[in-house]
Amino acid sequence: MKPCVLALLVLLTASAGVFAQPAPASGGAAPHVAAAKKAAGQDHLALFNNLCSPPPTPQPPQTAAPGGGQPPAAPSRERWYAPPVKVFDNLYYVGMSEYSAWAVTTSSGIVVIDPLYEYSVEEEVVNGLTTLGFDPKQIRYVVVSHAHRDHVGGAALLQERFGARVVMSAADWDYLASDPGRYPKAKKDIVATDGYRLTIGDTTLTLHLTPGHTPGTMSTVIPLRDGASRHTAILWGGTGFNWRSGSPRYIQPNTPAAYWYDNYGKSAQKMRRVAGQAGADVVLSNHPQYDNSTTRLALMPTRGAGQPHPYVIGRDGVDRFLTVAEECALAGPLW
């Protein structure tokens, strides 16, 4: 195994962490947890173990973080760096060991999806594209699935340096504007609506509103090429049940936990329909443990001609992934 591949495997495997098995479900949650577990099988266990667990012990109400001061110092490079990897003929991994970023190449430029933190975007996205043989000046668009710092923090650099257009939902542009975090924030640009079609050259990405993880999370349908084969990916825009922390960024009198569970479950159900209509046979995430990039990326450089593609899991595999998300959200308020 090549040293870079081995290093990637070690980094990504370590980043996945240890997912404890959820406690047995009881009461109204039990049938939904059972349905999620069945759908998860052996290939979506990270998603199941993260979402289908009882809520943590309630904590005292939190207050919003102050907006003053400087952002925390960036962690050392060896803690987060992962090398870039070609995944499909028009899709490249330019993410970190724990946070994914994807580059879609087209006949008229590059679309970056989820540009990481402000401290890692240069090394992973800009230098990663250069390593792969692309000119980062060709980045035309930056699609942000949701306005959390680990996925939007790098957008400002790409916007300012390369003139890339930043695409996000209206709700998450507002969410970003209200974020007290002291990191560079992209200037408001393209506001994507539900079903927004982003066409660049020979490629069209379709963005769907899937609120839950944030107020305006968006999931993306991506056409893919693998030699003569064609595939379609669903990039699920946001995974965790973040409201469980009790953060006032989520929990307010008109948006209790039940509100977020309901939105999340409906979004997963919606994307099951979208995936089915699109014939999606690949699922992607912005955290490598959830789409099994923790192991699949390391397989790509040594994949032989004619061998099955590690990321192609079939329509049933995609449907089961989204079923896990839906059923765990239905279980959430019933524990």
Concise overview:
The protein is an alpha/beta fold and 335 residues long. It has helices spanning 3-16, 29-40, 45-51, 121-131, 149-152, 155-162, 170-177, 257-278, 293-299, 314-331; strands spanning 85-88, 91-93, 102-106, 109-113, 139-143, 165-169, 190-192, 196-200, 203-209, 218-226, 229-235, 282-284. The termini are far apart.
Description:
This protein has 335 residues and is α/β, with parallel strands linked by helices. The protein has a single domain (25-51, 78-334), classed as Metallo-beta-lactamase, Chain A (4-Layer Sandwich). Helix content is 33%, strand content 18%. It has 10 helices and 12 strands. The chain has helices at 3-16, 29-40, 45-51, 121-131, 149-152, 155-162, 170-177, 257-278, 293-299, 314-331; strands at residues 85-88, 91-93, 102-106, 109-113, 139-143, 165-169, 190-192, 196-200, 203-209, 218-226, 229-235, 282-284. The strands form 2 sheets. A 7-stranded mixed sheet has the order 1-2-3-4-5-6-7. Strands 8-9-10-11-12 form a 5-stranded mixed sheet. Strand 1 (85-88) and strand 2 (91-93) form a beta hairpin. The termini are far apart. Residues 1-19 and 64-68 have low confidence and may be disordered.
